[in-house]
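Readers outside the structure-tokenisation community will struggle with the description of the input data as it stands. Showing the layout once, in full, would remove most of the difficulty. For illustration, here is how one protein appears when written out as sequence plus structure tokens:
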Amino acid sequence: MKDKKRIFPFHPFCVGFYPVISLYSHNLALFPAPDLLRPCLIVFGATTALYGLLFLIFRKLEKAAFVTSIILILFFSFSLVSEGIGAVVPLYVQGIIPGGTSSLWILLALIAVILASWKWKKSLAPVTGFMNVASGVLLVLPIGSTILGLIHIEQALRQLPSEKTSISTVAAKDMPDIYYIILDGYGREDALQRYFGYSNQPFVKALQDRGFYVADQSRSNYCQTELSLASSLNMDFVKTLLPNPSDVFVRAPLDRLLDKSAVSTFLKRRGYEYVAVTSGFPGVQPHSADILLSNPSRYSLFETTLLETTPFRASSEATSSMYDSRRNDLLGALTNLQTLEPRGLKPRFVFAHILAPHPPFVISADGASIRPKHGAYGFWDASAYFAVGGTKEEYQTGYIGQLQYLNSRVLQIVDHLVKISQTPPIIILQGDHGSREYLDQNNLAKSDVREAFRNFNAFLVSPQVRKNLYASITPVNSFRMILDGLFGANYSRMPDISYYSTWDHPFVDVDVTQKVLKPLYP
């Protein structure tokens, strides 16, 4: 009778899926849903294989399941446990142990597995029942949170404004190609001098020699990429585009605004081909583009974040692979721009997002591969960068090195784009925000917004557009001035306002314009 009442121990699968679903549920705003698929398949396959192997060893299903769950818990809690060990074990003890806290974690893990696999005198059925229920309930929580989050996203997307029609008065074939190249986190020349002690004047002069107008008093409207690009590509402020966001944590409407923007819609209706070049940031994936040029990464950002919780975090080979993948994304995006062919019958609007000089720092000024000393991998900058062990010296060295390399490639790209153009092109080189070394992602009082908002902004445009430009222009007005000059669109100039918002509450903004305008030098 006892055998008939025995239940199948399914808890290893709940334990394995929980960290994956939980991580996703807490980051719905950042990670696209398809990123869940591969990690879930890998967890299912690995859990099944381990479960089967331990069953062959123990010949008891309950014990195999119990030990499998213990191993999975230890595997996904590596980061938490090793950091806890590091907090209580003296540094001099860590220094004399090969592998440091990682070795101590391995020792604790082996002890736990040995104890878990010890020959039990009593039946494991009660333990199995408890673990089935506990792990099942635990898994339901992030699944429920994910479902509610996706519902909120759908509700938020319904708040997006409907597209407005317009009439073309200019023949598309006579129009110039338009290149909107975002250099993520690229600071203004005076801010680089003030905060990094670096003069970017040679690059500025090289652009001016090529005919660029460099807005030397430019500042960004927002200090977060998705907010900034949603605004600039729709020529309006986010609070107007999304007057009633359904959830302050949901960024999906921003990504949709970025994808199907007012600028791309305006130009496509006038016969332009829409080309997008991306470099790996999940929120910037304009699938509505006629052509999307991207470089498939070995790991998605979601996967690398998940790996950071496991022993792979301590594997130099695994971490190096993540940085190699990031470097390939960056170099691939630059190459995609530099190898564009001359256009066909249609003019084209090219939107490119280059995730540099923004961290992670993966390439030096001379193009050599580098990797931060702190080891952890992620797209962190600002306060988040220092929270994972990055240092000020490392940030400044990595940022300037990556910026110098970017400068050399950008000049090559500009020369190439001008060379292949039958009609002189329009090229906008723009930082979506500043360098953000002194930005606290969740505390305005701890932020120096003068650095975070002073962005680089340069325009290669025709005379009828250039007359509309001015030194303090912000991204929200970039295309208003360009479309006015090219098409006589009659867009009115928006106020050049800068808004700070926290990472956790992106739609709760504070006007910091006057703080941004304060002199850099007392």
Notes: Strands lie at 178-183, 213-214, 273-277, 291-293, 348-354, 426-430, 457-460, 499-500, 510-511.
